[in-house]
Design brief:
The protein has 122 residues and is of the alpha+beta class. It contains 4 helices and 3 strands, in the order αββααβα. Helix 1 packs across helix 3.
Length: 122
Amino acid sequence: MKAKRINRISEEIRKIVSELLTNGLKDPRINTMTTVTKVRVTGDLRYANIYVSVLGDDNEKKETLEGLESAKGYIRMEIGNEIDLRYIPEPIFHLDESIEQGIYMSKLIEKVKEEDEEKRGE
């Protein structure tokens, strides 16, 4: 299957799941500060790997993933209602911690800058 079509389908699924996270899902386990960072659909359109970022501690991240797993059927149904495909991809949720890693790296860089400025000032 063409990569351009797969990318378009992935982007549409990202939009649909993002909208569901803000308005459609009522599960109290799902953190309100959850965002979909990316979606990768397999070449045969059977699976959609959905990467979510959750702002909170480890327990909130775990509960959010559990809530998303329990709502998997509803999410798949909504994807099917919005996108006309022969096979509706099964959502597989993954925790994406790249945002936290980026913040951590930024803090390390700032710390090194401050230490360097202190050494040059002395």
